[in-house]
Design a protein that fits this description.
alpha+beta, 4-stranded antiparallel sheet, rod-shaped, about 575 residues
C-alpha cells in the first residue's frame, strides 16, 4: 500500500510538472527541472483518416498521436498542409498520462476536421512531428472524395450515382420540356429496403408524370450500369430565370442512410415571340394537326348535321381552344361542345350545322394556328373542304300542300268558268254559228285532215316505231301516272311510283328483292355513278315515306317526282347504251 501511495504521488507530481512545462516552457530552461532523456527513447507517431471515402460536402476526421515509453516533454504541434485539396480545421487536442514500466509516460493527441475542396482521389502528404528537436513523420494515406451525386462502396467498389437533366435549358412559356431523374448503379444494395427517390417540388411548373420503361443497362467507362428513370413533363408558368432544385436519392446502407444529390438545373424561360405572330393565334403551344368529318354525306334542309373537329399532336393541351368555324352562308352553327372521345394527345369538338337551303353545302376549310416551340415559329394547319348534299325536307310537302290548296280553289273556279264558256259556246253553235275547222289535204287520199287527227296519227306512228325496252315500258308507266286520274291518296301514288322504279331495276339489273339497301348494292355493283345512285335512293326513300307515313301530296309534288324518276331512267339508259357501244 505504501508503494502504491508513493507511485500515485509520483504520478501526480509528474503530471503537475508536465502541465507547468506545457504552459510555461521557460521554467524548464530556467529551473532545469526536467532533464533530457536518453536518445535511445522509442517515440511512436500515428496519422489516421476516417472514413477513407466521403462525398463532396461531407467531412473526414484526421487523428494524430505521438507517444513513447518515457515521459515526453517539449512536444510541438504537428505540421502538415493538405491545401488545396482539403481545408484542415482543428477540433481539439488532449494529453494522456500513463504508466510504463513503473515510469510516467505521456501521449499527445490532436484531432482535425478535413473539409474537401475538390473531387477526386488524393494521396495525403506526410505529417511532421517534432520532439526535442528530432523530426518524426507519419503518412495518413489516401482519401477519395466523390461528388454529392455519387457513392462508392470501398469494400466492393460498387458505384451508386444520380443525375438529372432537361431536354432544353431555354424553354418558352407554357411550352413542354422533359425533366429526367436517373439512378445508376453497378450492384444492387444488399438491404431489404430499396433506395428512395425524392424529386424537387417544381412549384414553378405544371407537371405531368410520364410512364417510364423498366430498368435498362448501359456501358459507361467500361462498366455496366443499371439505370432507373423518373420522367416528368414540365410546362413553365412564368418567364425569367428558374432553378430546379436538386433531386435526392436516399440509400439505406448498413452503416446508415446516405443521401445522394443531383446538381441544380438553371433554366431561362422565354416569352413567346411577337415577331411573326398570326392574328388567328389563340394560345396553342406545341405541334398540332387538325381534321374534320361529318356524320353523313347528306342532310335534309332544316335538319341538324354533326361536324366533328379534332385537334391532335404534341404539346401543352391546356392551351388548346376550340377552332373557330368561318361563316357558312345559309347555315346556322351551334356549339362547339367537347366530346368524350378526347384523349391526352387530342381534343375533339362537335358543331351542329343546320342548313336552310337545298343544294350542295360546302363546309369550308377550317384553320388552326399554333406556336411551334421546337422551331420557334407560328404555324397553321387546316382541314380539307367537305361537300354535303342538302336534300328537300319531306315535311316541306305538307307546306306545299297547304299552299296548293289555295291554287286548288282557283283551279276549281277556273274550271267552272270553262264549263260556263263551253255551254255558252255550244248554245251559240246550235243557233247556227259554226266555227270552221282548218283542214289540210291528205297526201295519200287527197282528203283533208284536222290538226287533232294529225296529232293522234303522230302518236300512233311514234308508238309503232319505238322498240319495247325496260326504259320505254317504265316511261309509259310514268306517263300513265301523269295522264290517269290519280287519286289524292299519297299512299296509292307512292306505291305506284315505287313499283315502276323497282320493276325497271328488276328488268335491267335482276334485282332480287324490292329493298332500298339491295337496290343500292345492285346499282353500285353495276357501276351506276354516285349522283344517279343518290337520286334513285332518294326517290325510293320518299316513296317509302309516303307509303308508311302518308301525308298530303300535291299534284305539283307528284309531277315533280315523276319527272325526276323519268330523268333517272333516261340517264341509266344512256349509261347502258354507252356501255354496250
Amino acid at each position: 500500500m505504501k508503494r502504491i501511495g508513493r507511485l500515485l504521488n509520483q504520478i501526480s507530481g509528474a503530471a503537475f510538472v508536465y502541465l507547468l512545462l506545457m504552459h510555461f516552457p521557460f521554467l524548464a530552461t530556467a529551473q532545469g527541472v526536467v532533464k533530457r532523456e536518453s536518445t535511445q527513447t522509442n517515440i511512436n507517431v500515428a496519422a489516421i483518416v476516417s472514413p477513407r471515402h466521403i462525398q463532396f460536402g461531407e467531412r473526414a476526421r484526421l487523428d494524430l498521436t505521438i507517444s513513447g515509453e518515457t515521459f515526453i516533454k517539449h512536444i510541438e504541434a504537428p505540421q502538415f498542409n493538405f491545401l488545396p485539396a482539403f481545408l484542415a480545421v482543428p477540433l481539439h487536442s488532449e494529453t494522456t498520462p500513463r504508466l510504463e514500466a513503473d515510469k510516467i509516460a505521456v501521449s499527445m493527441a490532436w484531432a482535425y476536421e478535413l473539409i474537401p475542396q475538390a473531387i477526386g482521389d488524393f494521396a495525403l502528404s506526410d505529417i511532421r512531428f517534432a520532439y526535442q528537436g528530432t523530426p518524426y513523420f507519419a503518412n495518413p494515406g489516401s482519401i477519395r472524395v466523390s461528388g454529392a451525386d455519387t457513392y462508392i462502396d470501398v469494400s466492393t467498389n460498387a458505384i451508386h450515382q444520380v443525375e438529372a437533366e432537361v431536354n432544353t435549358s431555354e424553354p418558352y412559356l407554357n411550352a413542354p420540356l422533359t425533366y429526367t431523374f436517373r439512378y445508376l448503379y453497378t450492384t444492387v444494395l444488399p438491404t431489404r429496403e430499396s433506395p428512395t427517390p425524392l424529386l424537387p417540388a417544381l412549384s414553378d411548373f405544371r407537371v405531368e408524370e410520364i410512364s417510364t420503361s423498366p430498368s435498362q443497362t448501359r456501358q459507361i467507362r467500361g462498366k455496366t450500369f443499371w439505370i432507373e428513370e423518373h420522367v416528368r413533363q414540365l410546362y413553365p408558368q412564368k418567364t425569367g430565370q428558374l432553378i430546379i432544385e436538386p433531386a435526392e436519392l436516399v440509400l439505406p446502407l448498413r452503416s446508415g442512410r446516405k443521401t445522394l444529390k443531383t446538381k441544380p438545373l438553371k433554366l431561362t424561360v422565354q416569352p413567346l415571340p411577337e415577331t411573326g405572330e398570326l392574328q388567328q393565334f389563340s394560345g396553342a403551344i406545341g405541334e398540332y394537326q387538325i381534321s374534320a368529318q361529318v356524320a353523313r354525306s347528306w342532310v335534309e334542309a332544316g335538319n341538324p348535321l354533326m361536324l366533328s373537329v379534332r385537334v391532335s399532336g404534341r404539346g401543352n393541351m391546356k392551351t388548346i381552344t376550340a377552332p373557330k368555324l368561318p361563316p357558312i352562308p345559309g347555315v346556322i352553327v351551334n356549339g362547339p361542345e367537347i366530346t368524350k372521345d378526347s384523349t391526352p394527345t387530342s381534343l375533339a369538338y362537335t358543331y351542329t350545322l343546320i342548313p336552310s337551303q337545298r343544294g350542295v353545302l360546302h363546309i369550308p376549310t377550317i384553320e388552326y394556328t399554333y406556336f411551334n416551340p421546337s422551331r420557334a415559329v407560328y404555324a397553321t394547319t387546316q382541314t380539307a373542304p367537305i361537300p354535303v348534299s342538302v336534300r328537300p325536307n319531306p315535311n316541306d310537302a305538307v307546306e306545299d300542300e297547304t299552299d296548293g290548296s289555295a291554287w286548288g280553289l282557283w283551279s276549281i273556279l277556273f274550271a267552272l268558268l270553262i264549263v260556263v264558256l263551253g255551254i255558252g259556246g255550244y248554245l251559240w253553235y246550235r243557233t247556227g254559228f259554226v266555227i270552221p275547222t282548218r283542214r289540210t289535204p291528205n297526201a295519200k287520199t287527197g282528203t283533208d285532215t284536222s290538226d287533232s287527227q294529225r296529232r293522234r296519227n303522230r302518236r300512233t306512228q311514234d308508238t309503232d316505231t319505238e322498240p319495247v325496252t325496260p326504259a320505254s315500258q317504265a316511261r309509259e308507266a310514268l306517263s300513265a301516272l301523269v295522264n290517269s286520274d290519280t287519286p289524292e291518296n299519297a299512299t296509292t301514288f307512292a306505291n305506284a311510283l315505287a313499283h315502276v322504279l323497282y320493276q325497271y331495276l328488276e328488268d335491267i339489273f335482276d334485282l332480287s328483292q324490292r329493298n332500298i339497301d339491295i337496290a343500292r348494292e345492285v346499282c353500285t355493283h353495276a357501276g351506276i355513278s354516285e349522283p344517279i345512285l343518290r337520286e334513285i335512293i332518294d326517290l325510293l326513300t320518299k316513296c317509302d315515306y309516303h307509303r308508311f307515313a302518308p301525308v298530303p301530296l300535291s299534284v305539283d309534288a307528284r309531277n315533280a317526282l315523276i319527272a325526276r324518276a323519268e330523268t333517272v331512267i333516261n340517264e341509266i339508259e344512256n349509261l347502258q347504251n354507252a356501255h354496250d357501244a
